[in-house]
Amino acid sequence: DEKVLAAIAAVPRHMFVEEALASRAYEDTALPLGFSQTISQPFIVARMIEVLREGRELGKTLEVGAGCGYQAAVLAQLTDEVYAVERIEPLLAKAKANMRKIQQFKVRLKYADGQFGLPEAAPFDTIIIAAAAPAIPQALLQQLALGGRMMLPLGAGSQFLHLVEHRPEGFVNSRLDAV
Fold it and tell me: Which are the catalytic amino acids?
């Protein structure tokens, strides 16, 4: 998806990692953020957003697991309404500082446990979840608008990306790439 590639190119990934890792920021790999968290591999960020965009605009988007803010900044290149939640307060502070550094003011960041989503801003057209879950959080299904899409890695041992679509007949879950 050319628009996704342009969005990735527009976000300076080196601004989202520790200075000591800046020389590796443009490698296609996950990098440590501290607190046992990582900044996602650029290919996975692009793949998840590409699938979510397929044939539609992202619309009102919720990112669960904002980390350092990188993926939210990429999403903000593609839609005007981005909400991102993070459960680790120091990472949320880092994400906020990173948004200020790159002057990205469209992303609304909140300290919250992502498994509960962000009910006060729901429903969402798009939900993207950064961390693997053993099962799809029910609260997030309830916050997905009709016609909406959610992407998340699922699994405890081996993990796969899953696309969940909210259709009139219910939720349709498709297993995609291994991650």
Answer: 40
